[in-house]
Amino acid sequence: MKIGRNEPCPCGSGKKYKKCCLNNDQQTKRMHSDHNGFIQPAPLEISQKRPPKALGTQIRPYILAKMCDPAEQQVQELFLDRPELKKRLTVSVSRMRSLSTEQLIEKLSQRGVHYDQEQFLAICEKMVSAWEVADNLWPKQMKSYEKDVSDATGLAACMLWQRLYDEKKLTKVSIEMLDDWIERGYKQLYKDQFETCRIWMRVWETFKTDYDLANRSTDEIDVQFNGSQSFFNWCQDFEMELINASIDSKEFAELGVAYLKEFLAFFEDEDALFVSQFKSSLGECYCRSGDQEAGEKVMRELIRQYPDRMVGYIGMEMALSIRKMDDEALSLIKRLKILEEAKEFPVTDGKDFDLDRRIDDLKKEIANLEAKR
């Protein structure tokens, strides 16, 4: 049976389907490999998501190393069919991460690198990628054709930057660290959505500090970051998780307001469909944080801006459902009136939001209440 995007999720969470299990249902868990054995994730089939425009951009070596790490389940499954590939991976992210700092330095020494911490710190302050630091400090090793020399050297630089940051000897966050934080958030999604939001708020603060968001488009940031996830797509996922968390926690509703206000201030000139969805989420977070007046104001402005689209009407109906009213029937009537205004205009995307069914359901609820009186 087809489930509408705005219907209650069948898992019983109480959230809308689009805000709960839709993404998980749309993604295939199967991984595949090309003719060279290079591991590729199956494509995402999610509304409003897009691949980076710069399709010719080279994958960062650290990202490729993570995708091919034998600790990942999809890689282990691939090894069952292609065991010869496992023999090629004598150096990996997980193995290098398990080494102590002294062991990492020893790995570098074995490959002809004399590690000078002061020199390493100085160049890290001038660059954004640990792999690029290795490329500048140890070019001979990074261009070596000997087995695993360049991978071990580049990965060691990534691990050392992380540890120096943890020891508060570095204040800058490397691209590799930022990518790890984003991925850590994704791994927490179905375990602890609040922890995901905390991790991703740290990611957002880093993007604000290091990526000049005020003067650049999401596409430009995508090209600079070029991580495992597109910046554009991650921003939407963060928005969705904050909405989910806000249902159960006022704290995360307030975090949602902070993030969404900042995002809209930076990217108000982006694609209108994209921006309007973020505005609707801002309105919802306002309502869930306790500022009903601000939330409904956002929704009214959306209706004014886009009278031919459902985004404002559905947002206002949501806002009214959150508002606490003594008279339940009056609340339902107000929600019905908003949806009938959308149908009367008429909106162009009513079918996408099951407008007719929503109107019929509200009418039935009102009739049932009246029958009980």
Q: How large is the count of helical segments?
A: 20
The span between the termini is 35 Å
Strand order of the largest sheet: 1-2
Tell me the series of helices and strands, N- to C-terminal: HEEHHHHHHHHHHHHHHHHHHH
What sort of overall outline do the alpha carbons produce when their principal axes are compared?
elongated
**What do the pLDDT scores average to?**
85
- Uncertain residue segments: 26-47, 52-56
Multimeric organization: single chain
Major sheet description: 2 strands, antiparallel
How much β-strand is present in the residues?
under 5%
Per DSSP E runs of 2 or more residues, the count of β-strands stands at: 2
Q: Structural class of the secondary structure composition?
A: mainly alpha
Task: Using the CA coordinates, give the radius of gyration.
Answer: 25 Å
- Please estimate the helix content: 55-70%
Q: Characteristics of this structure?
A:
mainly alpha; two-stranded antiparallel sheet; 2 strands; 62% helix
Walkthrough of the structure:
With 373 residues, the chain is mainly α. 62% of the residues lie in helices and 1% in strands. The protein has 20 helices and 2 strands. It has a two-stranded antiparallel sheet with strand order 1-2. A hairpin with a 5-residue loop joins strand 1 and strand 2 (39-40). Residues 26-47 and 52-56 have low confidence and may be disordered.
